[in-house]
Task: structure prediction
Amino acid sequence: MTFIYTLRYMLDPRTNTPAKDEKLIDFVKKSRIDDVAFFINGEELNHSHLTKAETQVWLDAIKPLQKRLSDIGVTTSLNPWTTIMHSDRGYRVNPEIGFNTFVDIDGNKAKDMACPADPTWRKYLAATYAQYASIHPRRLWLEDDFRHYNHTPLKLMCFCDYHMQLYNEKLGKKETRAEFVKKMLQPGKPTKERQIYLDQARQEMIENEHLIEQAVHEVSPETDLAQMTSYPDWHALEGRDWDKLFKALAGEGHPKVARPHLPAYNEVAPLAYGRNFEEYTRITAAFLGENAELYPELESYMYSPLVKSNAFTAFQIVTAALIGSQGILLNLYDMMGNGINESWHYAENLAEIKPFVNQLLENRLPLDHLRGIKVLVDQDSSYHLQTTAGKNVEELLPHEKNWASLLGAFSFATSILPFGQKTSLENEIIAVSGQLLRNLTNDQITALLKKNLVLLDGESVQVLLDRNLGNLLHVKNAEWHPVRTNYQSFEQADGHIVDGVKNPRITMLQHTGNYLKIEYQPQSDVNVWSFAYNSIDEKLGNVMAVIDQHIIVLPMDQDQRHGWDSQFTTYKQGLLQQMFDSIKPVDYLIGMPNVKLLVENDGQKAWLANFTLDGYQQIKWHLAAPLVSNEATIVRKVGNSVKKTKIHINVENGIASIDEPLAPLETIQILF
Result:
């Protein structure tokens, strides 16, 4: 099998030269590129939405290279850089095209960014994509400006006169934009205004993709349509239905094809990248499912090794295997038409990695068939969650990604599970954060908590209290204490030892959310593991607890800026491991923080990826179930080749010891 390298490439029709073409062909050969996706009208060369004649200039410039690439077995795809338009940059829509622009939540009108329900824009976009299809690309991409948010300098859309008419028709009365927005965001139970907005945003994008699909496949039935994505929590705020949207774009007989966001345009600390990888890339992949074709985005903006090292680039490409990717989109060079820069040595880097990523694809990670703690996410959460102030649109963002990043950094085996009203879970280990439980009925919540081993955060507990379900946790009383109010200062695990430290402490003062102080009913089955203290060592109340031997509570919400940063400490890692050990065996790595562990359901395959600059001389794996065999093969990259090492694994007291090293930034596969 071939892990597909797609090079995103900007050819400037006005200044391109034969010398640049030769460099491109040479690079494609040396770096083992499989597909070249040509930008159209991108970034610095973008000059608003193009007419049919302007678009043809780009296609005519691409076609000779398409022929040359085909002669060496390389396919051509197209990456038009605009659908709605990323941002206003001083241009206005050409009157010859003549569609309406959107109005944001504050009433600001865009100059160059389309209203996604405007009939003229819909016809224009479908016709333009049919024109792109005329050169029969392998894949035809929709850029990630195909969304209702992040259109600089404006905010969430669309609230133009046409949209307000649509909203008011569904509402059955007339409201101004300001009235509608206020009710859409207001605290308390979600309003009809919010549902109408989300339903409209969801449906209009599905309709748009269907129109594009029909137009493209009439011209080029063999072309796969593909879409780029952004942040899944923000997509929830626009009501995205992942399955219906991508099926509408794919069309009959074509796969769902997506480019999940890889959250590092510049090089960052790998452990920070690891947290964001869980929160954005893995959650996006989960919403799309293992049957989708995934080609994540590797981008090095502002480009060159000054913003991202070759080592980090290789690390991103290899760890794309952790979502079962079939390939990767490589945005390595700028979008101004400079072409290939040989001094950056990308060709050698890509060629060296290729055998290993091909090998990983031979035993592709089964996204929907992983064991471990299931982190629940729901695409419909923005429909049901309750705002606190009703002032900012960010209050509609779900807070469901926190367990994913924390447990991944703690080296627990996890999977991401899209969850809905029809999902039934029993005898699973699940992690719930934010207001996801508001999406369920009381009976569904009760069944979920009684039939599974459950991790809950403070926001989840608050949902139970609001629903009069506190008895499920034996809650007698609960009270929120805001952070930095001279109340709580630190959490202390009295009577426990972690990392050789007795009664270890964890901050409740900095980079953390508010504290939900829970008092439990007397004689209830609650084992409290840690307590809140103030700055003069006075004990204030309970923090982490195990309830009825199957519910673990972390009674905190998230900081608006820092999320759960305060929890990323090996004291909390060790404490959580011990709490699980007291209940039920789970898969986790011992003494290897920030090493990700993914395990196939049947135990036949495992993946370990080191998201740190620290190396480890031995792998210690706390097992949830006996190994299928004590003999295994480790697959790893050595230079430009693949090394397979047969190993014997020693197991004692439920801990597997593997006498093999794991280098910084290294990913390995274990086959049983």
Notes: The mean pLDDT is 97. The two ends are 21 Å apart (CA to CA). The longest strand covers residues 631-638. The first helix runs from residue 18 to 31.
